[in-house]
C-alpha cells in the first residue's frame, strides 16, 4: 500500500475504533530544529496522522445533519444527475486535479492551497501553519463519522459498479460511508481557516476549498449531497476550534509565517497555471 493511500484512509481506521481520538502512539511530529517559533511536539494518533485540537469535543454530525436523500426522492435524483455530469470530465485537466486532491498525505496535502494563498507551505518555512493544517485535517475528518457510520451510505462508484480516480483506495472506501464527505470537510475547514489568516486572498482560498470538495464528485467517490453536508460539518468544526486556545495561538503564529513567506511569483509558476486551467473546468449543474 502506498503512503498516499495509507494516509488518505487512516481516518477510516481511526473512526473504526469507536473513539473520536484514539490513544496516541509513541511517535511524535517534531518541528525542524532551526525553525523560528517551532511548534511543540504533537503526538500522532496513527502513523502520519497528528492528534487534532478537539479530542472528543467534536461537533456531532449525526445531530447536525439531516438524513441523506433516499432513492426515489428529488434529492437523490439531483445526486444522480450531478454524478453523471461529473463523470464526463474524465481525461480532462479537472480530472487530473481531482486525482491529486484525493491524496491527503503530507507533505503533498500542504500544497493544496499554495497557489490560492501565494505561499509555499512546508514544514521548514511555515512549521506552525503546516502543523495547523495537519491537526485541522484530523478534527474535520473525524467530525464526519457520527453520520458516516450511522447511515453507511453507498458511494456512487458502488451504485454504478464503476471505478474511482484512486483504484487502490476502493476496497476501503466500500466499507466507509459516503455521507458526509470527509475530504470535503477537511478541505472546507482548511479554506475557512486560511481565509481568516489571509483575508485578502479569501475569494481564491474559498474557491479552491470548494473545488477540493467537488473533486470527490469528479473522482466518483461522493454524491453532491455528501459534498454539501461535508461543508456544514467543516463550518461547525472550525467554529468549535475557535474556542480552543491552542488553536488560536497556532493561528496567530501561522499568520506571522504567512506574512513572512508571501511569494508573488507563484502565480506565474507552471504548477499554478496548470491548477488555474483545471479549476476553470466546471461540473455541469453542480450546486
Summarize this, please?
The protein contains 15 helices and 3 strands. The chain is mainly α and 287 residues long. Helix 11 crosses helix 13 (224-241).
**Poorly predicted regions:** 1-7, 17-38
Mean pLDDT figure: 90
Strand order of the largest sheet: 1-2-3
* Shape by Cα distribution: globular
CA(first)-CA(last) distance: 35 Å
Number of helices: 15
- The H-level CATH homologous superfamily, spelled out, is Phosphatidic acid phosphatase type 2/haloperoxidase
Class derived from helix and strand content: mainly alpha
CATH 2nd-level architecture: Up-down Bundle
Order of helices and strands: HHEEEHHHHHHHHHHHHH
CATH structural fold name: Vanadium-containing Chloroperoxidase, domain 1
Main sheet: strands, sense, barrel: 3 strands, antiparallel
How many domains make up the 3D coordinates? Answer: 1
The radius of gyration is 18 Å
**Helix amount:** 40-55%
What fraction of residues sit in β-strands?
under 5%
Query: Class, according to the CATH hierarchy?
Result: Mainly Alpha
How many strands? 3
In terms of topology, how is this protein built?
Elements: H1 3-8, H2 10-15, E1 28-29, E2 42-46, E3 49-50, H3 61-64, H4 74-86, H5 93-101, H6 114-117, H7 127-142, H8 145-151, H9 156-159, H10 170-173, H11 182-197, H12 202-218, H13 224-241, H14 245-261, H15 270-279
Antiparallel strand pairs: 1-2, 2-3
Helix pairs in contact: 5-12, 5-15, 7-11, 7-13, 7-14, 11-12, 11-13, 12-13
Amino acid at each position: 500500500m502506498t503512503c498516499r493511500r495509507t494516509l488518505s484512509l487512516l481516518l477510516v481506521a481511526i473512526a473504526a475504533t469507536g473513539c473520536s481520538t484514539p490513544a496516541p502512539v509513541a511517535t511524535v511530529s517534531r518541528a525542524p530544529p532551526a525553525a523560528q517559533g517551532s511548534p511543540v511536539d504533537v503526538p500522532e494518533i496513527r502513523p502520519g496522522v497528528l492528534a487534532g485540537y478537539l479530542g472528543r469535543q467534536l461537533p456531532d454530525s449525526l445531530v447536525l445533519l439531516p438524513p441523506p436523500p433516499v432513492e426515489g426522492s428529488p434529492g437523490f435524483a439531483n445526486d444522480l444527475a450531478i454524478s453523471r455530469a461529473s463523470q464526463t470530465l474524465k481525461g480532462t485537466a479537472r480530472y487530473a486535479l481531482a486525482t491529486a486532491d484525493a491524496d491527503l498525505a503530507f507533505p503533498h496535502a500542504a500544497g493544496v492551497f499554495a497557489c490560492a494563498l501565494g505561499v509555499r507551505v512546508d514544514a521548514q518555512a511555515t512549521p506552525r501553519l503546516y502543523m495547523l493544517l495537519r491537526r485541522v485535517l484530523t478534527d474535520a475528518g473525524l467530525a464526519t463519522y457520527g453520520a458516516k457510520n450511522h447511515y453507511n451510505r453507498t458511494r456512487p462508484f458502488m451504485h454504478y459498479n464503476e471505478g474511482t480516480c484512486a483504484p487502490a483506495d476502493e476496497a476501503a472506501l466500500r466499507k466507509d460511508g459516503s455521507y458526509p464527505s470527509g475530504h470535503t470537510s477537511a478541505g472546507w475547514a482548511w479554506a475557512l481557516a486560511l481565509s481568516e489568516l489571509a483575508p485578502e486572498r479569501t475569494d481564491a482560498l474559498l474557491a479552491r476549498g470548494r473545488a477540493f470538495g467537488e473533486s470527490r464528485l469528479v473522482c466518483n467517490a461522493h454524491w453532491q449531497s455528501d459534498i454539501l453536508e461535508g461543508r456544514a460539518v467543516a463550518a461547525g468544526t472550525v467554529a468549535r476550534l475557535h474556542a480552543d486556545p491552542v488553536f488560536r495561538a497556532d493561528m496567530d503564529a501561522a499568520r506571522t509565517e504567512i506574512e513572512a513567506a508571501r511569494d508573488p511569483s507563484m502565480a506565474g509558476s507552471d504548477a499554478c497555471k496548470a491548477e488555474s486551467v483545471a479549476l476553470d473546468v466546471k461540473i455541469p449543474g453542480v450546486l
